[in-house]
Amino acid sequence: MNCPAAEPLIARYADHSASLGSAERQELDLHIQVCEACRVVLQDQRHVARALRARLPEAVSPGFAARLAARLDAEPTGWLGIANWRVWTVTLTPVALALVFVAWLGGSASTQPSVPSTSAGQAETFETWPASSAAAEPAAVFLQSSTGDALLEAVLTGAAAPAGDSDAR
Amino acid sequence: MDADRGLVTAAAGGSREAFDELVLHYQVTVLNLVRAMTAADGDAEDLAQEVFVRAWRSIGTFRSDSTFRTWIFGIAINVVRTHRGKRSRLRRLFWSPRKEADVNVDPLERASVDDGIEAPLAMREVIDRALATLPDDMREAVVLRDVQGLDYREIAEALGLPLGTVESRIFRGRQRLRPLLEPLRKK
Q1: B187 is in which domain, residue-wise?
Q2: Is A74 within 8 Å of chain B by CB?
Q3: Looking at the structure, do residues B73 and B135 belong to the same domain, yes or no?
Q4: Using the beta-carbon criterion (under 8 Å), do B32 and A16 form an inter-chain contact?
Q5: Cα–Cα distance measured from residue A135 to residue A3, given in angstroms and rounded to the nearest whole number
Q6: Residues B50 and B112 in one domain
């Protein structure tokens, strides 16, 4: 056995020699008898292991168990855990974000090819709208008197708001 | 034979009393494992609590082919690793050097002049500081072996590593600690 082969075994030999096989232990014994460097390493390993084992354990603070019990009491169990909206909210946030992103991609992809025709449609609407509505009332009056729905419909269809709608205001 | 088997089985069935009993058995062990792995970090108790909360959440998944101790140590290692990841990200954002006084005062010297500080406490501080200098992978293996007393097979299981890797990390970790723990040899 040489030093590089001995080193990994020295860790176990230093503090748990019984866990080595008898053949391994015999070989290591022979090597350590003739190798001064490995003997020093073995002593160092034993010293460090002993020092760490003597580390004084730290005591838990008096309120530790009570604080933990309060946290565990707040933990949902069984079906309550499944019904806990906080768990679902946190768990499903990435999924929701992914769905929004996919929807946004899909929406932008479907609107892109129709941009020219929409523009043309809008141009036609704005051109024809004053002609069809000017007789009824000026555009400013119409805008002031229309509700949101009526205005939207008028813009989309090129027609003036229904009279009843403006009367309602 | 795992001495905790009965309590673990009851806790897995939803018994809080059984789980509280397990907490009583392991709270000091888990706190000291977390403390030794996070050194002077003040969050050790919070992290130890997090370990038990996670254990309670997943006690139903405990497999009987390992001991409860190995299992909860595995949870503790994951909690510490997550904490370290968050901590290092925060450090990168808001790093500030430690005060000179904190770094340079030798706890053993302080213990000898200050009657209020006992030598074992000072020794623990020296050990924790020394452990803090190790790379994370070596520190985990050394703490599990020399502070917590797990055998090599249990460490390999808790860390999910081959036995040879565990031996090598413990060997190299101890060699790095040797000069830092030299003052304890003189005491």
Answers
A1: 97-187
A2: no
A3: no
A4: no
A5: 105
A6: no
- The predicted model scores a pTM of 0.66
From the CA of A57, how many Å to the nearest CA of chain B? 6
Residues B92, B113 within the same domain = no
Interface probe with B: pick from A7, A15, A60, most Cβ of B within 10 Å: A60
Tokens (6 digits) for A93? 């946030």
Residues of A in contact with B147 (CB under 8 A): 52-53, 55
Give the pLDDT confidence of A64-102 residue by residue, as tens digits. 988 999 998 888 765 545 555 555 565 677 888 888 888
CB of B164 closer than 8 Å to CB of A8: yes
Instruction: Classify B41 as helix, strand or coil.
Output: coil
Partner-chain residue, chosen from B31, B121, B181, that has the shortest CB–CB distance to A51:
B181
In this structure, what CATH number is given to the domain that contains residue B38?
Answer: 1.10.1740.10
Distance CA B183, CA B99 (A): 23
Same domain, B166 and B116: yes
Instruction: Report ipTM for this prediction.
Output: 0.80
Which residues of chain A from 27 to 66 reach within 8 Å of chain B, CB to CB?
41, 44-45, 47-49, 51-61, 64-65
Tell if the CB–CB gap between B142 and A16 is shorter than 8 Å. Answer: no
How do residues A115-166 score in pLDDT, each as one tens digit?
A: 554 455 454 555 555 555 445 555 555 556 656 677 667 667 765 545 444 4
Cβ-contact B152, A19 below 8 angstroms = yes
What span, in angstroms and rounded, lies between the C-alpha atoms of A42 and A25?
A: 13
A56-67 burial by CB neighbour count: b if 16+ within 10 A, else e?
eebebeeebbee
